[in-house]
Design goal:
mainly alpha, 3 helices, elongated
């Protein structure tokens, strides 16, 4: 199996601040078009395809409650 290691890409966020690597989007469009979600097996196949590991990170459990309130009130997570 060919490994398609992700290459650096310009980060251009959308109106809600989200960003996805273009190769990831292309992979999903090719292998999972019109699917709202993918199975754990399909997710793991994609990780193998790109030779990456993922981590789930929840911002709200990584900052103080005061900082969380400030960020949510201002809609700015850069502070």
């Amino acid at each position: 199996m060919e490994i398609n290691q992700l290459k650096p890409a310009e980060i251009v966020r959308d109106e809600i601040g989200a960003w996805s690597h273009p190769a990831y989007i292309a992979y999903l469009d090719t292998h999972h078009a019109n699917e709202e979600s993918i199975s754990k097996e399909a997710w793991n196949a994609m990780l193998t395809h790109f030779n990456v590991e993922t981590v789930i990170f929840f911002l709200e459990s990584s900052v103080s409650s005061d900082d969380w309130e400030i960020m949510m009130d201002s809609r700015d997570i850069t502070k």
